[in-house]
Amino acid sequence: MGLARVFITCATFATVVAITVAACSSPPVGSVAPAPPIDPTRLSHSVHAAIPCTSCHDGPRPGSHDHKPCDTCHRAAFLAPPGPLCRVCHTRVTTSPLAAPLKPYPVEDVWQTEAPTFSHEKHLDSAAVEREVGFHVACADCHLKDGKLAPPDHATCARCHAPEASPPGLVTMGQCTGCHAAQTQLRTQAQLIRGDLRPFDHPSHRVDRGGRPIRCEQCHDRTPNAGDGAHPAPSIASCVSCHDDSDRAPDTVRMRACGTCHVGREQSIATLAPRSHLPASEKPLDHTIGFRTDHADAAAQNAQRCATCHTQMSGNAADTCDECHQTMRPADHRITFRELDHGPEALAHRDRCALCHVESFCTACHVQRPRSHGFPGTYQLDHAAAARENVIACLTCHVDERAACSGNGCHGTVVGAPKR
């Protein structure tokens, strides 16, 4: 009864662990929700394509000065009672200006029109920029305003690209198509964080735990090589390098602590952080000393979980273990296994052998003369005792017992030999 209770307790604990791990694991890549439709109240750049960009973008915000320059074309709509046109710039349609605040500008949603084709690769090529303008730029030159992090705007670009400041041949502020593409596209992850991720706090990442500055390039390590219009999000590896270093970050913000970055996820003893979130030397909590001999059931039940870390495993469900088991022998394959143990094991668990050894592997050994037979010509005098002790071993190669013993010039022809 006591042993049964132990088994039930262990089974219950295993079930709880499995459920908890499943709840804390990251959602599959294919589960991203589809992008919402484009807001119909947004201004259509394609409809206004015949109008020069500077006709509207002559200030901090188009139409911010008494509906100019929009009223040049939409005068009749502005003289009529408030209607749908008002929703282009205002949050609601109303006759009271105080009750109709302006929408944020630039618009920040999943869709981006006239997307910029800015190339970080070109602007961070210090040697090339110095040859063109006599100096080079750093991340803070464009991304800091009044000491605070801020997205670059046209005023930022104008410091180098204003007509009176830019060298001949350089794109100027009046050449809109030199920096913007006439298309509507989804914003990248770097520009819009979705899902359950907490908003990233740049001020808290300016210095590490020891007071050392954290340079932009330490996190945005892929930006210098990004193409036009790309600003890749920091790689998880760059986060791990600091967050799992006790000298740079406290233990409370380790990558294993889900709540550091994710809303609604908490660290627990059964939390399984993705392999990408852990240092190369760290293993999941259930990978104890005995896990090597106990992992077969776990691998059979959830091979995808294994593949999270063991990225070199085969994709075929029948061969997922090849990369390990063809280079590492099972624990029972000791020095005596070939001579003493593999015969009974092969008879009892032939399927297990077949996981690694194909039939030709066995044949390649068994067509050779066994070591127990000694040198050619000597075993004829010694084989009787071995045959009496275990004739089944003889039949491994000598398939037909009568032919093996009485044929080939042996028991059937030798003078004085006993007859069967």
Task: Report what the structure shows.
- The structure is a single chain.
- A hairpin with a 2-residue loop joins strand 2 (144-145) and strand 3 (148-149).
- The model is unreliable at 1-31 and 414-420 (pLDDT under 50).
- The protein has helices at residues 2-24, 53-56, 71-79, 120-123, 126-133, 139-143, 154-161, 216-219, 236-243, 291-301, 303-309, 322-325, 337-348, 350-354, 359-366, 379-389, 391-395, 401-406, and strands spanning 111-113, 144-145, 148-149, 184-186.
- Helix 10 (291-301) packs across helix 11.
- 34% of the residues lie in helices and 2% in strands.
- It is built from 18 helices and 4 strands.
- Among the domains are: 80-109, no CATH class; 110-198, no CATH class; 307-366, no CATH class; 371-406, no CATH class.
- It has 420 residues and is mostly helical.
- It is elongated and about 120 Å long.
